[in-house]
């Protein structure tokens, strides 16, 4: 008789969230990104590293069409989110950016209360039907961003009155409030002190359980601490992409090796 028992086992299939093929970016006549191919995994932190001006932020901004806001910028090639072309003219960039949220280098809370900073996105995207539901989303988002305990008694106070590290976690709460699937972070710790940096790094590790996180960082130590995958960019090319441990201990390309050993950068 056939053995019909189903063997339970850990299934650890890492799925592609975003795929880029043949991506070129131009600022006017200047060719800033050249033929970038990459698959970004779900529930994974991917770090983009490389010397200043190599195109890390430009590529990050391609992933939620933030480059659309720069007049002279032109993007070619294909980028898909869950298999759907994000540059399809039928895609609304505002809706896309709710799914692919972004946190910037400098914390940039709106000049509004802590509550309103987080409530804004769910309100404009019509994600709630009642004040009670909105309160719930605000609390959940502030908890996910590990700042609830610090602000729960002053939700009406201005977001801009928080410390830099708290403001950045508020911006992360704002980004997660629309229930995104991908979180893009452009040097999110560069304006923070070491303690706030450690808090945000810990948070990034927790967010990975729910999102695909992509982080641009100048700090190789940070990339090594927070990411599972690393992409090394140089002069507009994605030179090498792989497991973070492999990139830092056994890089395959001499340019990657020069960068991580401090010879370029
Ligand atoms: N808005 C813009 N207009 C014109 N050129 C730009 C613009 N933004 C970036 N560039 C150019 O595109 C190239 C890539 O820049 P990008 O900011 O993506 O690099 P980066 O690797 O993120 O650099 P950094 O680490 O210094 O932030 C650079 O040559 C830069 O000067």
Classify the beta-strand content into a percent band. 25-35%
Q: Number of helix segments?
A: 10
The N- to C-terminal Cα distance equals 65 Å
- Which of globular, elongated, flat, extended, rod-shaped describes the shape? globular
Domain count: the total is: 1
What does this structure look like?
It is a single chain. This protein is α/β, with parallel strands linked by helices and 265 residues long. The protein has one domain: P-loop containing nucleotide triphosphate hydrolases (Rossmann fold), CATH 3.40.50.300. 34% of the residues lie in helices and 25% in strands. It is built from 10 helices and 10 strands. It has helices at 56-62, 93-99, 114-124, 131-144, 148-151, 164-176, 194-207, 220-226, 244-249, 254-260, and strands at residues 16-27, 30-41, 45-49, 73-81, 84-85, 100-103, 182-186, 212-216, 229-234, 237-243. It has a 6-stranded mixed sheet with strand order 6-7-8-3-9-10, with helices on both faces. Strands 2-1-4-5 form a 4-stranded antiparallel sheet, covered by helices on one side. A hairpin with a 2-residue loop joins strand 1 (16-27) and strand 2 (30-41). Helix 3 (114-124) crosses helix 4 (131-144) and helix 4 packs across helix 6 (164-176). The radius of gyration is 20 Å and the shape is globular. The N and C termini lie far apart (65 Å). The structure holds adenosine-5'-triphosphate. Residues 27, 32, 50, 52-58, 70, 72, 218 line the site of adenosine-5'-triphosphate.
Keywords:
single chain; 265 residues; Rossmann fold; globular; disordered N terminus; binds adenosine-5'-triphosphate
